[in-house]
Amino acid sequence: MAEKDPDFSSCKTPSASQVVEELKELWSMALPTTTSNFMAFFRTAVSVLFLGRLGRLELAGGALSIGFTNITGYSVLVGLTSGLEPVCSQAFGSKNWDLLSLSLQRMILILLLAIIPISFLWVNLGSIMLFMGQDKEITKMAATYCIYSLPDLLTNTLLQPLRVFLRSQRVTKPMMYCSLLAVTFHVPLNIVLVRVMNLGVPGVAMASVLTNLNMVVLMGGYVWWKGGEMKWKVGNNINSVVDLKGMWCGLGPLLKLAVPSCLGICLEWWWYEIVTVMAGYLPNPTLAVAATGILIQTTSMMYTVPMALAGCVSARVGNELGAGRPYKAKLAAMVALGSAGVIGIINVTWTVILRERWAGLFTNDVQVKALVASVMPIMGLCELGNCPQTTGCGIIRGTARPAVGAHINFWSFYFVGTPVAVGLAFWLKFGFSGLWCGLLSAQVACVFSVLYVVLVRTNWEAEALKARNLTGLEMCPSNGEECDNDEESNRLLVNGNIYNVC
Known about the structure:
The chain crosses the membrane at residues 29-51, 63-84, 104-131, 175-197, 203-225, 331-353, 408-428, 435-455. The chain contains 20 helices and no strands. The chain is mainly alpha-helical.
């Protein structure tokens, strides 16, 4: 049985001091992570700004390429890496340093394999877009941006796992400082490459790649620098020669966590791109697509907070389950959900109050501003559901049940949201607002499903027992003996029940 904390059991409601302590613990991680996420958003916004200064064609081509690379590349890498969250966080909680560092190496290997087909897609962006009927000039510009973005795939194979690796150990402030420092040089890099060297679109793409490379070097340097002091955290393997045999052993079980995690994130991420495509089929497509672009940039900005909260509560839940403290894991989950609800209310409030002025930050077009203002309250209601839904998915990942989140997102967005959006926008002629009502319906279905799983269908003691099995596995021998994949697989998957909802 998982060890219980005698001061906090299922029969006793947590005290106010325990709730406050958990709030401090959670937000001491979430605030720096939010800053890091906002820096990533700012980096993209700066790139779009410089593309816009180059001209309408460059902006259209760059925007097309950014959308394509998000769908086919970055969403996949971020999604796969999220499968590392339960293993690293639970391993840290149980003080299994070998599993912690070995899982990082395994995930890097998984991402290196994943970028091979992704690279093939990026190289052939021009052919794909022309086949889909896109404009030749825009496609040519998009293909150029995509080709020069290829090295970013390699930087992300290190950047994304390092973020999870450090966050699972509650090391978030150094990540924030690394992000701030790297992004500080992003604007000067764009000025030098785009204006001084007159490289145009390739210069914008190269600046983004170099900014991410700077971030990887800074974060990797921090781990290396603190390796001696943090030995009890990062494990011995991080400062030793990579054990290839140890990396391959258990790769399959980690993939069984990574693939559902990837699907859960990508299914939601892709749906926003589908909304943009559907907007192009409305009666006034130019107006609708322009408004969609502003609204999606706004949701991306707001998403930085719940995304940070989800990642941090995943780490907190995993840490406590790995340490055999199921009811502290439950407390972390409840505090995070309460925080997400407050954030959702804040988002609804400001989107309603500033709906008439917000679009003016992006455009002077009166029609676009009016259309954005009419939909902003609906978008705010979407965020009211999105905040607890995203946080709940983080909790589910922390309990090593990513398939549950993937199923919820699939059914909510594609069997609820898509039919509602198409029906309202095109059949019932609600137009642009109908698309966002479809998103609202998807978020409502999603948040109720996620809350049901977390609040009703989660047995926290059973999850702690699973964490004990997950992190109690023996490492593969490094003395040349056969690696028993079947035994490790059984341990990692807890006899095939790791995804079941208790």
